[in-house]
Amino acid sequence: MFRKTNPQRELFNVESQMAQGSRERLKESWAEHFRGEVLSILMKSEEDFSDLYGITGRPNFSVGRMLGLCFLQELNDLTDQEALDAFSFDIRWQYALDVKAEEAYLSRRSLVEFRGRIVRIDPRMKRMRKVFDLITDTVIDKMGILVAEQRLDSTHIQSNIHSKGRLALFVDVLGVFLKSFDEAQYLLVPAHIRQWQEKESKGWFGLGTAAERKATVEKLARYMYRLLECFGKDETVSKSEAYQLLKRLFDEQCEVIEKKGSASSHNGEGGANGNGGGDSDTPTVSSSEPEAKPDETLETPEPETEAEETVTVKQSPKGGDTLQSAYDTDASYGHKGQGYSVQIAETCRNPNNEIITDYEVHGAARSDIGKASDSVDRLETANRAPDKLYADGGYPTVESAYDIIENRGIELIAPVNRGPMDAAVMGRDRFKFNNEGHVVSCPAGHPAIDHKILSNNSTERTLHAVFDGDLCRHCSMLETCPVRAPNHRVKGETPRDTKGDFRLEITPALRLRDD
User: Fold this and answer.
1) Mean pLDDT across the stretch 130-137?
2) Of 361, 389, 413, which residue is a domain's last?
3) Which tens digits make up the pLDDT trace of 453-473?
């Protein structure tokens, strides 16, 4: 049951029994500022989290203090238990969160369930974004931080969920799937897979050699394929998150190769790689590699029958939006490794303090290209848009730079992500334009005879400047000029042999690109 924290402070608090010198040091520490500035904001935000709780039952632990505990945990890079120990035994934490020593206890289960409810009810973290905005605005106002100049960059981060190797990933995903069943569904699992789950699944790490690990991965790939085929037609199971996780891993890391001359039993529904199960619940598959020796404790070894298909394990993916953890499905693999990429905007050129003004977290496989516009969108919504934005070379594209500079009126300073244009190549920057964006003359001094909306190479209709074809065909600069020759010319015909007028696409984005 949700209950707001009582704002009334106790007469005797954690600091009341401390020596005078200790109290003075405590009030000069970070704990004083956290309690006075941050905790008060968290307390005001409590009602935004009320739907995390039911309307009956035991009252909740203070939401404001729970959020504060989570913030301090991440700030100090602590594990759950380390953070809870600090809360119980460190007077600075108790003072910062405004609790008495006898109340400074929280179970790990309560902390984990609180975070879990936030993720389930608000997966886009809109509540946390609101808290971030409130704290940021308060700090900017009280410290007089200017937001006129900001910088944008990204950094690589990892979640608190530990990532293991490929073998562990296969084991974890299979475990998640098998544990999602009720008793009746579990009995439909092939007997040798149930035996593995009950006897072997927690002992995979005992395999020491690379060959043994490879053989085990191949065996688990066959297990996944059997399970996908067995439950592919079960509407309840096939729509479950656990089944989709299993299918995602199989599609990313395994493949099925049909033997020549064999008739496939797949019907295109459910199953691995979108294929459905055949007439049998346990299709016959084999591995292209030798079978690992079954554990002697297994009563039901994997059945060996005539194989119509081969399940193989692909070469280990080195990057991209591939599954990295059974418990952290949003993490991906970028050029910096497993995890996430976080875009951070922060103030700069203030005399003393700076502050982060915006953030965005996404999988590490996603690029920074074009992300500057998204950050500016959020900064404008929060009334923190800069006059000047610095970004590294991974961000600007022609479209995003044009949007930020021309549409938002923000000065964007960023290196271009391409080399300088060859001096021999003529760009639109060498044409003369008037204030309306029309061409006055080309580099050779020839005026445009008209401006029309015409189709470009991508069949989009955009603004073009039209030039006299007779002048262009006799111009010494034609070979390096970006003008486009007339359409419908004969195959092999050079621009100088054509008939008709020439044209040049002059959209603002192309002009900015050439500049």
Assistant:
1) 95
2) 413
3) 988 877 788 899 999 999 999
Q: Which residue has the higher pLDDT, 285 or 199?
A: 199
Whether 55 and 1 have beta carbons less than 8 Å apart is answered as yes
Three-state SS at 470 = helix
- CB atoms inside a 10 Å sphere around CB 498: 18
Residue 259 is part of which domain span? 166-313
pLDDT tens digits, residue range 203-244? 544 445 567 777 888 889 899 998 998 898 888 888 898 898
Closest CA to 132 of 408, 372, 384, 395: 384
Q: How far apart are CA 183 and CA 425, in angstroms?
A: 71
- Number of helical (H) and strand (E) elements in the chain, helices listed first: 18, 13
Q: How far is 486 from 495, CA to CA, in rounded Å? A: 8
Residues 175 and 306 in one domain: yes
Cα 162 from Cα 169, distance rounded (Å): 11
Q: Are residues 261 and 343 in the same domain?
A: no
pLDDT tens digit sequence for 193-214: 888 888 776 654 444 556 777 7
Amino acid at the residue 164 = K
The answer to whether residue 40 sits within a structural domain is yes
Whether 292 maps to a domain, the answer reads yes
Which of 379, 413, 447 finishes a domain?
413
What's the CA gap between 37 and 135, in Å, rounded? 8
Mean pLDDT of the chain: 81
Residue 369 shares a structural domain with residue 263: no
Mean pLDDT of 167-176: 85
What pLDDT band is residue 79 in, cutting at 50, 70 and 90? confident
- Domains: count for the chain: 4
Position 278 pLDDT exceeds 60 = no
Q: How far is CA 480 from CA 411, 430, 450, in A?
A: 31, 12, 22
Verify that 347 and 242 share a domain, yes or no. Answer: no
Strand partners, 338: 333
Neighbour tally for 215: CB within 10 Å = 18
Q: List Cβ neighbours of 134 (8 Å cut-off, separation of 6 or more).
A: 41, 44, 45
Measured between alpha carbons, how far is 405 from 378 in angstroms, rounded to an integer?
A: 16
| 254, 124: one domain | no
Rounded to the nearest 5°, which phi and psi values hold at 333? -125, 115
User: Are residues 453 and 408 located together in one domain of the fold?
Assistant: no
Does residue 289 contact residue 214 with C-beta atoms inside 8 Å?
yes
Measured between alpha carbons, how far is residue 200 from residues 220, 226, 265 in Å?
11, 18, 31
Is residue 7 situated within a structural domain? no
Domain for residue 48, yes or no? yes
Co-location of 179 and 282 in the same domain: yes
Whole-number Cα distances in Å, 446 to 83, 452, 467, 494, 505: 73, 17, 8, 21, 16
Tokens of 212: 């043994």
